[in-house]
Write a structure and sequence with these properties.
This protein is α/β, with parallel strands linked by helices. The chain is built from 10 helices and 16 strands. It has helices at 47-53, 75-85, 100-110, 164-169, 176-182, 200-203, 227-230, 247-252, 258-267, 286-293, and strands at 9-15, 29-34, 37-41, 62-64, 92-96, 119-123, 129-132, 135-141, 149-155, 187-191, 194-198, 212-215, 235-239, 272-276, 299-301, 307-310. Strands 6-5-4-3-2-1-16 form a 7-stranded mixed β-sheet, with helices on one face. It has a 7-stranded mixed β-sheet with strand order 7-8-9-12-13-14-15, with helices on one face. Strands 10-11 form a two-stranded antiparallel ribbon. A hairpin with a 2-residue loop joins strand 7 and strand 8. The longest helix has 11 residues, at 75-85. It starts with 8 loop residues before the first strand and ends in a 5-residue tail after the last strand. Bound molecules: zinc ion (ZN) (2 copies). One zinc ion is lined by residues 19, 28, 69, 71-72, 218, 277. Residues 67, 69, 144, 218 line the site of one zinc ion.
Amino acid sequence: MVQIAGETFHVYFLGTAGALPTTNRNPSCIMIRRGSDTLLFDCGEGAQQQMMRARTGFTVDAIFITHWHADHYLGVPGLLQTMSFMGRTEPLKIYGPRWVHEFVDFVEGISRTPLGFVLQPRELSDGMTISFDGYHVRAFASRHNTLGLGYILAEDERPGRFDREKAISLGVPPGPLFGCLQRGESVIIESNGVRTEVTPDQILGPPRPGRKVVYTGDTRPYFRGWAEYAMGADLLIHDATYDNSEADRARDVYHSTAGEAATVACEIKAACLALVHISSRYTGTKTHIEDAKEYYTGEVIAPDDLEMIEITYRS
Ligand SMILES: [Zn+2]
Ligand SMILES: [Zn+2]
């Protein structure tokens, strides 16, 4: 079998704090790098310094904000100014729920340092999808104490497995024609003056799912309407502001416990659960992880700020 090399896919946890930052954790900011694209999901205060520490650079293609609580967007104005100082000229898309236009109007209106590039705000709502080359981002309604969205980044399906032996048995010589078939193109084989067409479906197995990452933003454990799109995610990044001992508080303030995040991971059959938006009341995350594992048998992590994980294809 021949594997087609896919695009690289990395998730940077630039900010994993709850509403209050701590000396170890910055407010919410997740960077996803897929191939040459860089997307930010939330951009809390200090995000640009986290980008420096993580050595990611400032080339961001789009920013997705989950909701208009300050711990999720205060990093945007400073980052924009830095991008401008560094000579950015490409327009920047900023996506978010209702009030994204007001946010951009405010940032541009108050600033006495005009940006060297255009901001392109776009309001999203539940079920809306933004397409990129090879993947898309789908917004879904979260359940918080203000209007909020979570996001599912999902790659397009991959071609099925390439059966090398079958290709050779059909007379296709190893080389450039293999690539044509892998890309879904038919090829013509000539043997003893006889021309034969070999089609991709003779060589390729059924299409395989691409990689998928879900980021909920601040929310109660709530998956109605979006679970089917998130099903089988490689990574679920979920609000886990509290450990299970604070379940009442979590419900009152429209956040989740680690255990509740785990129930969502179970529901969507995620391979890995990342607990984020950790309240400043906790000095460690051992209890969070234990609490999540009571409800979920997959991998559970509570990343520190600046941790990066690679999302690889699952067999
Ligand atoms: Zn928050
Ligand atoms: Zn919030």
